[in-house]
Amino acid sequence: MVDSMAEMLGRDLECESLLDCFHGLNDLDRRVFRLLVDADEPLTVDELADEIDRERTTAYRSLKRLQEAGIVEKDQRSFESGSYYHVFSPADPDEIADDMQRLLNDWYAMMGQLIAEFREKYDEVETDGDPAAPPDHE
Q1: CA nearest 100: which of 33, 17, 12?
Q2: Is the model's pLDDT at 13 over the cut of 70?
Q3: DSSP H stretches of helix in the chain
Q4: What is the mean pLDDT of residues 89-96?
Q5: Of residues 15 and 42, which shows the higher confidence score?
Q6: C-alpha to C-alpha distances, 31 to 4, 37, 49, 57, 65, nearest whole angstrom
């Protein structure tokens, strides 16, 4: 269940919590992202699967979610034989932060609109008649 805004604001949030708030990451996604951030160079799916001790397909699904969230990038590398493989690395932190700022601005604008609609809707109830007064029974 979604926490209330008051509950969310009352929590002690950390930097990594931002990724959870904005992108709904699960424990595995956070772990994969942390491995990519801590790595000295981009990693393959197989390297990540070994690090997290999971199947290759599980590692790939997590990477796919992180890519879709825009916080991980995929690059293609070529072997001399002509075949290729992919490596993954974290996206630029400034780009991630800018995307989160845009999402926050969009959310803030949407909440502002909903609050204005709330005011308008319930102001009409008060001006259309006294909702606390019982109906006339004659």
Answers
A1: 17
A2: no
A3: 5-10, 15-23, 27-38, 45-52, 56-68, 93-128
A4: 94
A5: 42
A6: 26, 10, 11, 16, 13
Structure tokens that stand for 84 in this block: 């290729």
Other CB atoms within 10 Å distance of the CB of residue 29:
22
Q: Whole-angstrom Cα distance, residue 108 to residue 93? A: 22
Distances 74 to 24, 42, 126 between C-alpha atoms, Å: 20, 9, 56
* Spatial CA neighbour of 11 closest among 1, 21, 19: 21
Q: What is the dihedral of CA 61, 62, 66, 68, to 10 degrees?
A: 20
Residue 21 pLDDT greater than 50, yes or no: yes
Place of tokens 């994969």: 32
Q: What is the mean pLDDT of residues 46-50?
A: 96
Are 71 and 95 in contact by the 8 Å Cβ rule? The answer is no
pLDDT, residue 6, reads: 75
Q: How far apart are alpha carbons 13 and 40 in whole angstroms?
A: 27
Rounded CA separation 135/126 (Å) = 15
